[in-house]
Specification:
38% of the residues are buried. The radius of gyration is 38 Å and the shape is elongated. The chain has 296 residues and is mainly α. The protein starts with a helix and ends with a helix. The protein contains 13 helices and no strands. The protein folds into two domains: 109 residues, Cytochrome c-like domain (Cytochrome Bc1 Complex, Chain D, domain 2, Orthogonal Bundle), CATH 1.10.760; 100 residues, Orthogonal Bundle (Cytochrome Bc1 Complex, Chain D, domain 2). 50% of the residues lie in helices and 0% in strands. Keywords: Electron transport, Heme, Iron, Metal-binding, Transport. InterPro entries: Cyt_c-like_dom, Cyt_c-like_dom_sf, Cyt_CIE. It comes from Thiothrix lacustris. This is Cytochrome c5 family protein.
Amino acid sequence: MAKPVLIGGLLLIGTTVAVLVSNLFSTIEKNSIKGTEDTTMMAAAADLNLTPVGSVTAVDKSIVKEARSGEAVYTAVCTSCHAAGVLGAPKIDDKAAWEPRIAQGLDGLMKNAVNGIRSMPARGGDPTITDEELTNAIVYMTGKAGHDLSAQVKAGAAPAAQVAAAPAAAPAAAPAVEAKPAEQAAAPAAQVAAVPAAAPAVEAKPAQQAAAPAAAAIDGEKIYKGICFSCHDVGIAGSPKLGDKAVWAPRIATGNDALYNSALNGKNVMPAKGGNPALSEAEIKAAVDFMVEKSK
């Protein structure tokens, strides 16, 4: 009886040992490396270490920025006055109104455009406009009125240096312009462009005050300095001067919606969006908010 039990136990032990040995060899086989060494992970780690952390863009500062076309300058700055003839500015398509101005030649028009005259601010209120862009704008506007000054561009356009060095050199041309109240010299575009930002807003119907959420993320001061300042800094055409609390009080009382509406749609001599249709509704509202905040 004992012998069969002993034999059975030995067989069980032997089977167990065989299974364990088989598993051991199987594990060794699976975890061993055969043939060429696998360097995939090492290569991936090397690529990761060599990945650039940034980039550098080389800029050739000797390259001059391309000047905008006359139409582009007119649309951005001049249209606010010359489209409707604001403050006597010659309308872009009024040939008769341009004729006495054309008599000055491109040189005379450039001097007035660079220095400003009467209610027309220098360079249309935008100091970033270059001489070449001013010339382009003048040629574009006079061309639309049926007068071709393109032949005078190279010979007749007065550089800024000449204009600044001898502002009195144009007494013969300037009086001819001043003799007519309607005279504006090619770039009065921004002189009234700022009026819509708030000037006539006092006439708008009262509405609920509601700050535009989108305007909060836009720099209203930047918009103001780009176009509104030319009128609101000095109070041109009855526009309230920035910071004049007494003048702004009745306008602020009408509410933000009324101010926004007047600025966006225009009123009386004030063109819609300050005469710059490229400005978004949020940008106009941001400019209004800035002026209101500075005038409370």
